[in-house]
Design brief:
The chain is of the alpha+beta class and 87 residues long. The chain has a three-stranded antiparallel sheet with strand order 1-3-2.
Length: 87
């Protein structure tokens, strides 16, 4: 499941893309996740389903070589799928 902050950032994009496609999806954070997220939940994406492209903030380790636990954040383009696109 995506974080609450990322969901709030992605929500306007999800609503806009849903309206453009003529789809009515439920508007809940639990109903959206990435491909890998749905796999971890034990669900699969329906063949031919088109994901929704959104920008999300993701963490990364700054100093992997020095083994410091400093964490940075960067914005990445991710693809989300709705629960109705899974089985």
């Amino acid at each position: 499941m995506i974080s609450k902050e990322n969901y709030e950032l992605a929500r306007p994009f999800l609503i806009y893309q849903s309206k453009e496609r003529g789809l009515e999806f439920r508007d809940s954070r639990n109903d959206w996740d990435t491909f890998i997220g749905w796999k971890k939940r034990g669900r699969s994406i329906l063949y031919g389903s088109e994901g929704f492209r959104v920008d999300m903030v993701v963490p990364f380790l700054i100093d992997k070589i020095k083994k410091n636990k400093r964490v940075g954040f960067v914005t990445r383009n991710k693809i989300l799928f709705n629960r109705k696109q899974t089985f």
